[in-house]
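User: Thanks for the earlier help. One more: SGNH/GDSL hydrolase family protein. Can you show the sequence and predicted structure together?

Assistant: Of course, both are below.
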Amino acid sequence: MNKLYVLLTLIICGAAIIFGNLHWNDKISAQGEKASPAQKSVVDKEKNEPVHTQIDVAVLSKNLPENVQKKIKQASETKKPLQFVIYGSDSTPTEKGAWPEQLKNKLIESYGEGIFNLTVISEGAKTTREVIDGEGYKEVSKLKPDIVLFEPFMLKDNNAVVGIPNTLANIEDMLEDWKSVNPEVTVFLQPSNPLFNATFYPVQIKDLQDYAAEQKLPYLNHWENWPKLDDEKMNQYLTKQDDQPSVPSEEGHKIWADYLIEYFVAE
């Protein structure tokens, strides 16, 4: 009798343990199912949040001179933008869609806000002598530029027969004024747009390139992107103006901008 009682007690206890364990597992599973929608919403939220990538200015600026790379890095760290001035003739217009605007937009898109404070100044159809006499170049000086991308009126001087020695002397006067307000300014020289079948003009442009080399100034030869000077396709990249040399057409602005963008933004 005692053995039977003990056996029954063991069976009842075992059943209670098994039933209790099953009940507990069911409860835990139910709680897990209730929690899963919330967990899913957290995951979904993480998936939907935008991914913020860190802009690496060292990579973007790797084509530039070392001193300019350092300026950009410092601007990124200090949040103090560099004064970047694009300066030139009516080959460097301020109008919408022109190469200066295309370059400006790409710099902001790639480097982000706060690296460059960009200003475009166009002197129109003036020669270097007219710019010197009118002191238009001092508008650049007022900005105390860190970087100047300079298209020095070569096409206008060629048309007015100023003469390359006078042109280079006038350019030198402008450079000295900019350096007087910021000795650390970096000036990039670039030619005006090319012309179809020009004869003397390319020789003067070569003199400008030689001058840049002598003065150790970066020279951005965007002519590399244009058709050959004797190629009639050149005409589709230029727009004729009454009594004035040709200036870039929409296509001309694009190939000029593409060259500069590839240089200033290494991707």
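User: Great, one quick takeaway?

Assistant: The longest strand covers residues 82-88.
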